[in-house]
Amino acid sequence: SPDGIGILDRRGRFVTGNERFGWMHSCARVEELVGQSIRDFVTPQELSKLLGTVLPILQSGAAAHGVEAEIHLRDGSSMIDDYSAASIAWSEAPDDEAYIVSVRDVTERRQLLDALQVAREHLEARVQQRTYTLEAEIGERRAAEATAVKRARAAGLNAPGAHPIRLTARPGRA
Fold first, then answer.
1. What is the pLDDT of residues 98-119, one digit of tens each?
2. Long-range CB contacts (< 8 A, 24+ apart) of 36-40?
3. CA dist., res. 132 & res. 117, Å (int)
4. pLDDT of residue 141
């Protein structure tokens, strides 16, 4: 499975999981995780986010899906995971209750989405700047046209019998 699947007891300690789950936590074997706490892998801020988001859902009996958190691995690297979790009956856990957790590495997806957001903001700033520049140019053209019309009228070019001045755009020009 591309997902890591693990079981945590109610205190957030790893009970068991598949090999992918162990690999995702920098372990050669998933058994190396047994007894370790989720607190060993997340920052206090991420833990607070997970507990504040996921725990109330699980305590209500529902399953939690699509919760992202950054975890820190033994080798010092980090990755962004997408978590789904549900409460289960587990005879090997204290109180016969545990949480089954499905974890998917979404680091690359998150990095691409972040880069896309930066590019979108950059493009928006460029569009705003270009719009401002074009509006200024349009204002300058209108002012120049108004000045030209005033000068033409002052020179009597629109006097009775004179040919009126008509300003029109040439084909292919704005």
1. 899 898 989 888 889 999 999 9
2. 37/11, 37/12, 37/13, 38/8, 38/12, 38/13, 38/14, 39/12
3. 22
4. 92
pLDDT tens, residue by residue, 140-161 = 999 998 888 888 778 766 555 5
Name the percent of the chain in helix, strand, coil, to the closest 5: 45, 25, 30
pTM listed for this prediction:
0.61
Q: CA separation (Å) from 133 to 99, 126, 129, 136, 137?
A: 58, 10, 6, 5, 6
> How far is residue 61 from each of residues 29, 52, 54, 85, 97, measured CA to CA in Å?
31, 15, 11, 11, 12
